[in-house]
Design a protein that fits this description.
The chain folds into four domains: about 160 residues, Beta-Lactamase (2-Layer Sandwich); about 100 residues, 2-Layer Sandwich (Beta-Lactamase), CATH 3.30.450; about 70 residues; about 140 residues, Heat Shock Protein 90. About 40% of the residues lie in helices and about 20% in strands. The N and C termini lie far apart (about 95 Å). The radius of gyration is 48 Å and the shape is elongated. By secondary structure, the protein is an alpha+beta fold. A hairpin with a 3-residue loop joins β12 and β13. The N terminus is likely disordered.
Length: about 500
């Protein structure tokens, strides 16, 4: 009796490790192909092409032979040791047996001598692209046949290639489904981890689709708001805000959706008892490799206590600042009152009173304000501060012009700047460009990376000369610019008027 172990030639990797062959065959997911209509069409056509009643797609491993498609054969698969396909799959071409009783290799095979009465057999090998033999596409008959024609042999090989194409499709489909299942499981696991993490956070957590549709809130959101789960999906979330905050919140959210910029806003959110509490809302866009937004993730943090405390501090600061402003007024009044009894000190007293007034204007600009008393210009604006300091020196028309850049300034720099530019403006009003009709002063601000330069240029005034000796005003300018601001001062006594440059470090003007 011929067997796989003794009779088949060693060709095309038949001695491949059984585990490797099993792994290759398992990758094709053969159970999904059993009795496949597409494979049945191939066996039907193979039988008709070769003029036989039977055609099979036979796959073989170390212990079993499996017919995954069959035409004209209903009996169980024979044992693998009797299989003629085991010989076919290690051939380089079609194995053809016109009459098995006359072939010494198969004359004693039970498929030939037994009830099956196999006589004619022709098979084309089924081999994977990496050379692993898998089985064969074969045609059978119980009567001898003449040899196949070249066209029939070619057709059998082409049909065997089609079988392998179907197997590859099944393998790739199985791999795709496995990858999809793995990705789905990974996504579900990631989603579960995210929800678990989000539900343990003290903040309210939410997410939205790229178009802004809110589709998830964590447990903390529902605990805080007391609304039914899912009731704030979509655009319904905005209804949870205080009516006065809704349009503002919508505008900020639409801006982020349009630009992709981070979303941040403070608003009042209604909690489950109907009371509104201040909340800080933030969100960031998550982008794919091409930079497209795929999701928004956001948080809502309860800041109600901090907000109330900040408002209380602001009220206290405003009250304290208002009292300091009043102190400036009281001191100025005391100086004027004292000067009445000492007429010889009236000039000194007036200079002192004006300096105190300049300090008061600077303080009033940078101090904490209520909404009603807020300056028109930003309180961190150097141009705004200078505009407030020069207000008393402006006559009909613009006598003092501020040009160039702007720079950040805070309360620390306000005092030396007030003293410095008050002295310049006072001197210009007494002796320089502001002392005559048509005289002008232009202050130009130039901001660099680390320095800010202020150029004071007078035009249209009387000719000026440097003072014979350094007076108190000059000393005050030097004190303000050099010692307090850490800068430098250069003067140019031009025929048209004084030109002075003050250069200070930007860090001296603002802590920011």
């Amino acid at each position: 009796m011929a067997t796989i172990d003794s009779a088949p030639p060693v060709a095309r990797g038949w001695r491949v490790d059984p585990a490797q062959r099993r792994a290759v065959m398992d990758a094709y997911r053969l159970e999904t192909l059993r009795d496949s209509p597409a494979l049945r069409e191939i066996t039907d056509f193979a039988a008709a092409l070769c003029g036989t009643p039977t055609a099979l797609v036979s796959l073989i491993d170390a212990t079993h032979q499996t017919f995954i498609a069959r035409t004209g054969f209903e009996a169980p698969e024979p044992p693998v040791e009797h299989s003629l396909c085991a010989h076919t799959m290690v051939q380089d071409g079609v194995l053809e047996i016109p009459d098995a009783t006359s072939d010494a290799r198969f004359a004693d095979n039970p498929l030939v001598t037994g009830d099956m009465h196999l006589r004619f057999y022709a098979g084309a090998p089924l081999v994977s692209e990496d050379g692993i033999p898998l089985g064969s596409l074969c045609v059978l008959d119980t009567t001898p046949h003449p040899p196949l024609t070249p066209l029939q042999q070619q057709g059998l090989r082409v049909l065997a290639s089609n079988v392998m194409a179907r197997l590859r499709d099944a393998r790739e489909g199985a791999a795709w489904r496995a990858a999809e299942d793995a990705a789905r499981r990974a996504a579900a696991d990631s989603e579960l981890r995210f929800h678990t993490l989000a539900d343990t956070m003290p903040q309210m957590v939410w997410s939205a689709l790229p178009d802004g549709y809110h589709d998830y809130y964590n447990a903390r959101w529902y605990e805080f708001t007391g609304v039914p789960e899912g009731s704030t999906d979509g655009e319904a979330w905005n209804g949870m805000f205080h009516p006065d905050d809704q349009e503002r919140a919508w505008a900020a959210w639409r801006h982020s959706l349009t630009t992709g910029e981070p979303y941040q806003i403070e608003y009042r959110l209604r909690q489950r008892d109907g009371v509104y509490r201040w909340v800080l809302g933030r969100a960031l866009a998550i982008r794919d490799a091409k930079g497209r937004i795929v999701r928004w993730f956001g948080t809502c943090t309860d800041i109600h206590e901090q907000k109330l405390a900040a408002e209380e501090r602001e009220v206290i600061a405003q009250e304290l600042s208002h009292r300091i402003k009043n102190i400036f007024a009281v001191i100025s009044g005391l100086v004027s009152f004292a000067a009445r009894s000492r007429p010889e000190l009236a000039g000194v007293a007036e200079d002192l009173r004006q300096r105190i007034a300049a300090l008061g204007r600077a303080h009033d600009f940078v101090r904490p304000h209520s909404r009603a008393s807020q300056p028109l210009l930003r309180q961190d604006s150097l141009r705004g501060l200078l505009d407030a300091l020069f207000a008393p020196y402006r006559r009909d028309g613009v006598a003092v012009e501020i040009a160039g850049d702007d720079a950040a300034v805070d309360d620390r720099a306000a005092t030396p700047l007030a003293l410095l530019f008050h002295e310049l403006a006072t001197n210009a009003a007494k002796y320089g460009a502001l002392s005559v009709e048509g005289g002008r002063v232009e202050v130009t601000i130039a901001r660099r990376d680390r320095t800010v330069t202020l150029d004071w240029v007078e035009t249209g005034g009387p000719p000026v000369q440097p003072a014979a000796e350094e007076g108190f005003g000059t000393q005050l300018i030097e004190l303000s610019a050099l010692r307090q601001l850490g800068g430098s001062v250069t003067r140019d006594w031009r025929p048209a008027g004084l030109a002075m440059r003050v250069e200070v470090p930007a860090a001296s003007l603002s802590r920011a």
